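Dear Dr. H.,

I hope your travels went smoothly. While you were away I took the liberty of generating a structure for the chain from your last submission, since the lab meeting agenda had it listed for discussion. I wanted you to have the full record in hand beforehand rather than looking at slides cold. The sequence, exactly as received, is reproduced here:
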Amino acid sequence: MMDDSTHLDTNRRYVRVTGVRHNRFVEFDFSIGDPNLFVELVLPFEQFRQFCARNHTQELSPEQAAQVDYEQLKWRHGKPGISS
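The corresponding predicted structure, in token form, is as follows:
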């Protein structure tokens, strides 16, 4: 939840490659402003490259990716690393 002191920078756009399908398609997460809020997308390689260029994306750093994974664990299980 954001309060008045939190500013979402919609100019910051992130991608995180999560896989490759059939050696033709890139699976990736795309987020605007907050890496924790993303959509999962699939595009052919060339269209992925164009998408990233048009949106001026930056790839998530390993630290950012780990933080996203950590937050997802908390959301899914209430506590990180504990499965039901």
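Two observations you may find useful: The chain is about 30% helix and 30% strand. Helices lie at 45-55, 62-77.

With kind regards,
E. W.
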